[in-house]
Each structure stands twice: as C-alpha cells, then as structure tokens.
C-alpha cells in the first residue's frame, strides 16, 4: 500500500532538497539511481564528526567515543543487512569494495576453473571479474541476460555452472533496466554444482528499494554505495563472509591478519550508517506494530517496495486522467510494461527524438532525469536492443504521485 497523505510529507521532511535544487531552483528529482536524496540527519552528523580532530585507538574520551560510534554503526549495519556473521567494512566506494572482494576471491581461490557472471552486470563487478580472472589464469564466462525482461534468472545461470566455478558475481538490481534479480535462487543453483564457489553480489542499485537479507542468500560478499541509500558520498560499504575475509588480502605487515580496512576510517561515515538504519527503523514503526528492530526494517522495506510500485504503475499506466507511458506513441520501455521485477525505475526512449533532447526538455520543465548511452556503463543493455541511448527515470519512496503526474504531462506534450 502506498504511503498516505499524512505519512508521505513526514517522510519527505526528513530529506534534504526534496523539491528544490540549490543551483536550479524548483525541480522534481527522478534521478535517484544516480544518487538518492540525503537524510537531513546525515548532513548534521557529517558536519559534527568532520569537526572532531581525534583519531580512533587513543587513550582519551574523544577517541573512545569514536570507537563506540563505529562499533554501534557496525552493529546497526548487521541489523540492516540481517548479517549475524562476517565483517562490515568501509572503503572508498561501492565499486572499490567490489573490486577488492573480487580481487581477493580470484587470487585466493583454488587454482584453475572459471569466474562466472552475467551480461546484466554493471561494469563495477563485470570489469573487476574480467580483470582478475585474466590475472589469475581463469576463464571469465558471462551468462546472457534476457533482453525482453531486462533481468537474469537462476535458470539462465544453470547451463553455465560447472563444478570448477570458483568465483561468481551477481547483480541484485540493474541500474539500467531497473529489474531485480533473485539472488538467493541464483546462489543456490550455483552451489548445487560448485558448493565452494565464492559468490559476490553488487547490491548498489537494490539497496534503496527494498530490504536486504544476507542470511538468506548464501553468498560471500555484498557491496553497497551508501550515497544511493540516503547517506552521502565518500565511502562504500561491504559485508564480507568469514571465509572470504580469511583469504590472503592486503593489510599491514605485523598487524591483525583479519583486518580489511586500510588506514583510519571516517567515523562520520560509520555514524551516517546509523542514521540510515534509524530512519528505516522509524519508517517501519509508522507502517507496522513490529516490536523487533529487524522486523521494523523489513516492514519499512516492504512499504518502500509497495509505494514505489504504485509510482511506477502510475507512470506506466497513467494517473489523474493522464496517459501512462504504455499508451504514448513512439515510446518504448526497456524490460516491458508489465514486469514484476521492476524496482522503482523506468528506462525508455521515444522514436525520432534523441534522448539528450528529451532529458533537456524535462529539465527545462523542472524534472530531473538522466540519459543512458551505449557506452561502457550501459552498452551491455542498449547494444543488444539496437539502441544508442535512453532516458532513465528513477524514483524513490519519498517521491509522490503528483510528481509522476507532472512528468506524464510533459511526456504527453513531447510524444503527441
């Protein structure tokens, strides 16, 4: 069920720059896949910790408080991810965390065999797998995704899984098609034939659109870019299983061999993770009576998914007597109109209209979207469709049906 007229304004009030850009003025923000809006609490927390000169590991009250904040954030992240074991690690970005995990897996797994991924994947995981497969002397096999549905399934993976599959990568949600993937089903299918395979998941696009349940996936690594999940730029987060963490990896000689973080971490980054978890806990309490924190976070995830489905359905099928994208001439939606795998994103193009011009027209009407091109970021999806570009309209749970209606009004004037 979508958020009601009382709750949605409360949700929107917790985010910065919901309705206005500090540089361009009033605008509707449908570019959430490029980076979600930031919680106001994250902005405040960042400023607070940026001013503290002390480092961790010292014998003074400030240092001890920094360590407490980091420990609390790691505990919060475990609740968020439902990850009772393994490590929570921060790094430079989600992409960097994927590269580190894939590098460690490729260089530490048993010799020979193959690295398995899919053509749906973002270059963050696909490039890392290709690079380190070659340097570790392994074949890199790509499972073709379904161009019609814009996703990939366990059945698609199955014919390509062999007993010597040493490392596998899975994209949880595509930032181009917007379609989600059943990670648990794919991981289970991999383990049927290759039980010791190290499985690493790119959760960067998925994280803002529904709950994460590491304990149910049966994987070894999961990466997130927190700026796409209501936090801020400047760091990435990964969950790393105990067996992946135990493989040889870069660390300081003479230091703890289990350590993955290099150098002093930004306490403020950790603290903003706690802000995100606190927000989802609050939201879960608004939509459920769950007494347990994890249950409230699951309730928030379900409510987010339901609200975003309402928004994308309105965009596709119409609202307020406005035609939806499905009824607009010359308009094509990637992944099809009726697709249950969709997570808060619609990618489309209009025949005879360059996508760059469409992005500009929407911008001039106060609606921010983004172009995707047949390049190293999105060519894996667009090239098989014979398409040079598209626009990506990416929503989040703080967006409203009224904003969708304004978008459809402009699109109707463009498509005729």
Which residues form runs of ≥5 with pLDDT under 50? none
What is CATH's topology name of the largest domain? Aspartate Aminotransferase, domain 2
Structural class, judged by helices and strands? alpha/beta
Strand content: 15-25%
Number of helices: 14
What is the first-to-last residue Cα distance? 32 Å
Q: Output the CATH homologous superfamily of the largest domain.
A: Type I PLP-dependent aspartate aminotransferase-like (Major domain)
CATH class of the largest domain: Alpha Beta
Q: Any idea what the shape is?
A: globular
Number of domains: 2
Q: Roughly how much helix do the residues carry, as a percent range?
A: 25-40%
Specify the biggest β-sheet.
7 strands, mixed
Q: Which CATH-level-2 architecture of the largest domain? A: 3-Layer(aba) Sandwich
Mean pLDDT: 96
What integer value in Å does the Rg equal?
Answer: 22 Å
Biggest β-sheet: strands ordered side by side in the sheet: 4-10-9-8-7-5-6
**DSSP, total strands:** 17
Descriptive overview:
With 416 residues, the protein is α/β, with parallel strands linked by helices. It folds into 2 domains: 7-38 and 298-415, Aspartate Aminotransferase, domain 1 (Alpha-Beta Complex), CATH 3.90.1150; 44-277, 3-Layer(aba) Sandwich (Aspartate Aminotransferase, domain 2). 39% of the residues lie in helices and 16% in strands. The chain has 14 helices and 17 strands. The protein has helices spanning 7-12, 40-50, 61-81, 94-108, 123-135, 154-157, 183-193, 214-217, 242-245, 267-287, 293-317, 355-364, 379-382, 401-415, and strands spanning 20-21, 25-26, 28-29, 87-91, 114-118, 139-143, 165-171, 198-202, 221-224, 236-240, 318-319, 322-323, 331-333, 345-350, 367-368, 370-373, 389-394. The strands form 5 sheets. It has a 7-stranded mixed sheet, with helices on both faces. Strands 13-14-17-16 form a 4-stranded antiparallel sheet, with helices on one face. The longest helix is centred in the last third of the chain and has 25 residues, at 293-317. It is globular. The model has no long low-confidence stretch (mean pLDDT 96). This is Selenocysteine lyase/Cysteine desulfurase. Keywords: Lyase, Pyridoxal phosphate. Residues 28-255, 303-407 form the Aminotransferase class V domain. It comes from Salinihabitans flavidus. One of its GO terms (molecular function) is lyase activity.
